[in-house]
């Protein structure tokens, strides 16, 4: 039986940049509604260019950039996203407050949470400097302006033909809806054709990268782990039924990796991959995830795309090659019957095999809308059936079964802790 490899690598070198992770998370969030496309990134680009025109101090510019690229992080339901398409959203503050609460749970981004909380407060001729007795940051008003400009701009095949109408609409709302000083800066920079053409460029990420105030910051293993946990928080917060799935897969995969002889660094990467494995599920409607009965053929087809979307997003991030592979292979099977790549045993790494077992084990063990979590004997009966069918790796399942007392306890502990934290979040969010 395999034993845990205790070799320590406390100073792992990773070439993963902060901007790449931020851009990937923003892309993931925009999967919630294809109609909005790259709404958050375009809003960030608009806000950044207005901010530069206003000569914002560097600290304010960095705050603006991060808050803008995540400003709709709280709009996790489709109906919230669809309302964003309206220039005058009649119920904007719930998703803004929820977004602030989500951002505050990640220590790196906690300082920017207040900017999200108030990013739909109108200027109201200066009365919008406070909201419900609290001061509203001026940067929140700038994000609000950029957000509404993006809504006016999207959907036009010939954006330059629409510039005059958009500029007029914004100017008409100066004072009542938007801060006049910020509108003046917009009117100045928006005279330049590139301002508009950049918004719909196929090189949007590269354009944003050039404007990012932290382009050269690289993440170490611990920082990447925290970022992955934040991804998982967003993914799992959409459903009460899959609240702790990513955390369970992550700890199971990491512990199995150690028992299978992988190094400490590799095992940590397995945990990161576990947190990120369902990234693509943000493109799946919540009602599919919460469905108590079977899905239709069309709905099942959409769900099956999620692991490919995970691969598509993560594989764009330099330095995440093995993590992207392990995360996106959790539905691959040794006999080639899995998806989305239909890779067979000769093309599946140990990390991919471990992730597949960790995902099935966790899914069978936890409650779902259509059934309660299964007891361990039934879980292993299912796993061994899949081994007999040459779908799951026999040695990984054997290690899981042999060390189940420890692995099961770890999964229960981590999932219970994550569940309590998310339940507290939902109570605050009023869900």
Task: Provide a descriptive summary of the structure in words.
By secondary structure, this protein is mostly helical. The protein folds into 2 domains: 33-211, Hypothetical protein af1432, CATH 1.10.3210; 220-429, Hypothetical protein af1432 (Orthogonal Bundle). Helix content is 58%, strand content 2%. The strands form 2 sheets. The chain has a two-stranded antiparallel sheet. Strands 2-3 form a two-stranded antiparallel sheet. Helix 2 crosses helix 9 and helix 13 crosses helix 19. Mean pLDDT is 87; it is low at 1-10 and 78-87.
Give the full name of the CATH homologous superfamily of the largest domain.
Hypothetical protein af1432
End-to-end C-alpha gap: 46 Å
Beta-strand portion reads under 5%
Tell me the number of helical segments per DSSP (H or I, 4 or more residues long).
22
Amount of helix: 55-70%
Helix-strand string? EHHHHHHEEHHHHHEHHHHHHHHHHH
CATH C-level class of the largest domain is: Mainly Alpha
> What's the CATH architecture of the largest domain?
Orthogonal Bundle
Mean pLDDT over the full residue set: 87
Q: Order of strands in the sheet with the most strands?
A: 1-4
Summed up, the domain count is 2
Q: What's the story with the biggest beta sheet?
A: 2 strands, antiparallel
Main attributes of the structure:
58% helix; 431 residues; elongated; single chain; 4 strands; 22 helices; mainly alpha; Hypothetical protein af1432; 2 domains; two-stranded antiparallel sheet
Gist of the model:
The chain is mainly alpha-helical and 431 residues long.
């Amino acid at each position: 039986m395999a034993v845990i490899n205790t070799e320590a690598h406390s100073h792992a070198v990773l070439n993963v940049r902060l901007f790449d992770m931020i851009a990937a998370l923003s892309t993931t969030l925009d999967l919630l509604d294809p109609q909005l496309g790259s709404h958050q990134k375009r809003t960030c680009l608009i806000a950044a260019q207005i901010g530069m025109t206003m000569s914002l101090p560097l600290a304010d510019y960095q705050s603006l950039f991060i808050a803008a690229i995540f400003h709709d992080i709280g709009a996790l339901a489709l109906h919230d996203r669809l309302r964003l398409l309206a220039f005058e959203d009649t119920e904007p503050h719930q998703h803004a407050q929820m977004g602030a609460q989500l951002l505050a749970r990640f220590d790196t981004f906690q300082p920017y949470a207040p900017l999200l909380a108030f990013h739909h407060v109108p200027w109201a001729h200066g009365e919008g400097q406070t909201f419900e007795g609290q001061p509203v940051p001026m940067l929140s008003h700038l994000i609000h302006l950029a957000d509404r400009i993006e809504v006016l701009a999207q959907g036009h095949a010939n954006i330059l033909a629409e510039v005059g109408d958009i500029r007029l609409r914004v100017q008409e709302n100066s004072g009542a809806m938007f801060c006049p000083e910020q509108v003046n800066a917009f009117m100045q920079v928006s005279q330049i054709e590139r301002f508009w053409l950049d918004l719909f460029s196929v090189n949007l990420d590269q354009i944003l990268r050039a404007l990012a105030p932290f382009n050269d910051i690289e993440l170490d293993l611990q920082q990447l782990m925290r970022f992955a946990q934040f991804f998982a928080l967003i993914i799992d917060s959409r459903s009460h039924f899959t609240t702790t799935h990513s955390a369970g897969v992550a700890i199971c995969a990491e512990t199995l990796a150690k028992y299978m002889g992988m190094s400490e660094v590799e095992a940590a990467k397995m945990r990161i991959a576990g947190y990120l494995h369902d990234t693509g599920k943000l493109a799946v409607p919540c009602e599919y995830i919460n469905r108590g009965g079977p899905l239709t053929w069309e709905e099942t087809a959409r769900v099956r795309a999620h692991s490919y979307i995970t691969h598509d997003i993560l594989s764009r991030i330099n330095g995440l090659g093995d993590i992207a592979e392990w995360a996106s292979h959790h539905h691959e099977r040794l006999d080639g019957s899995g998806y989305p790549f239909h890779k067979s045993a000769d093309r599946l790494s140990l990390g991919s095999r471990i992730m597949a077992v960790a995902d099935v084990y966790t899914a069978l063990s936890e409650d779902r809308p259509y059934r309660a979590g299964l007891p361990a004997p039934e879980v292993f009966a299912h796993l061994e059936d899949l081994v007999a069918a040459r779908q799951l790796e026999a040695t990984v399942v054997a290690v899981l079964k042999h060390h189940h007392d420890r692995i099961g306890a770890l999964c229960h502990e981590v999932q219970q802790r994550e569940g309590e934290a998310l339940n507290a979040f939902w109570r605050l969010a009023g869900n």
